[in-house]
Amino acid sequence: MFRNVPTAVVAVCALFAHATDAEAADPIRIGSFLAVTGPASFLGDPELRTLQLYVAEVNAGGGVLGRPLELVHYDVQHDANKAITAAKRLTANDRVDFIIGGSTTGTTMAAVPVIERSGTPFISMAAGVPIAEPVKPWVFKVAHSDAMACAKIFEDMRGRGIARIGLISGTGGFGKSMRGQCQKLAPSYGIEIVADETYGPKDSDMTAQLTKIKNTDGVEAVLCAGFGQGPAVVTRNYGQLAMADIPMYQSHGIASKSYIDLAGPASEGVRLPAAALVVADKLPDDDPQKPVVMAYKTKYETATGDPVSTFGGHAHDGLKIVIAAIHRAGGTDKVGVRDEIEKTTGFMGTAGVFNISATDHVGLDLSAFRMLEIRDGDWTLID
């Protein structure tokens, strides 16, 4: 269900039959722009379906403060210009109360100036550090940052005695940002980047870059910073070059089953940081996050028939955080909702425990990441 989404959609959830006054009939308008189709659809498709699923559930339960939710959505694919257009429509024409969107760092950053000028609370589902650092008054994000991914990976490498690595990264917004963060953090973990290669969004073979890394003296591991099909191509080429004796690390940007399917057998042994959601059913029963991730996993997979992914989980977390803020604010006044989002404390989401503040518009720490390894074509928890 929730698959056939045109380029621009206004998904209006029916008002309640029992509404008795104007306030009860006045919907809370949620704006969204996501990469539902195109090369980043593995991000946007589960994000949109999650929003639709929970909007329907909330409305069936009586709405928020007695008001139904109304979802106004635009499919921007992975196109910064479309994201700008969508942000203008959502804020100026559709007059939404808040926005949950931005599947990618590039589309998020393109839309931020428009959203900031409008004074609309915005929660992004992309990972790039520049989204929330420096802090922007109206912008929050629920995805683990690329800096956190670098730190978690380097912790694992240091624990395994790995000190010299080859880095290969995409040239898009996420790849550029993570490359920079890894370069900045590496020395503090005793890591030396001895080879540094990149690939473009349309590259279909990274053999040349990987060959350079393979031939660099003393390379002890390969780290790929990217998302989408690029990391899968890197992994397949890595397998073709018989580099299995050099461990491969990937970012949290590949934490969906589609990566394993695209990369094939070469993905065996790949390590990455990811949210607990990816291994929900493998968590110990006493893990405090397990009830949350299992509830979302069960609901999503039952409704859609597809495996859960980290990315849909971001939509779950963003919507729940905003709804809680609206309850605390007692309405949809934008300044009031923004201020209440900043007061989010101890919220257990699929990504981890959120403690947002005026100086931290993400609110996650390294404990939100779990280190995984792909074994026998599936995720395995290794810490």
Describe this structure in words.
This protein has two domains: 8-144 and 292-366, Rossmann fold (3-Layer(aba) Sandwich); 146-274, Response regulator (Rossmann fold, 3-Layer(aba) Sandwich), CATH 3.40.50. The protein is 39% helix and 18% strand. It contains twelve helices and 15 strands. It has helices at 22-25, 41-60, 80-93, 105-118, 146-159, 173-185, 207-214, 229-240, 257-263, 290-304, 310-329, 334-341, and strands at 8-11, 28-34, 69-75, 98-101, 122-124, 139-141, 164-170, 192-199, 221-225, 248-250, 271-274, 347-348, 353-354, 370-375, 378-381. A six-stranded mixed beta sheet has the order 1-3-2-4-5-6, sandwiched between helices. A four-stranded parallel beta sheet has the order 8-7-9-10. Helix 2 (41-60) runs parallel beside helix 11 (310-329) and helix 5 crosses helix 6. It is globular, with a radius of gyration of 21 Å. Residues 1-23 have low confidence and may be disordered.
Task: Produce a short descriptive summary.
39% of the residues lie in helices and 18% in strands. It is α/β, with parallel strands linked by helices and 383 residues long.
Q: Can you tell me the number of structural domains?
A: 2
CATH architecture of the largest domain: 3-Layer(aba) Sandwich
- What structural category do the secondary elements indicate? alpha/beta
Shape: globular
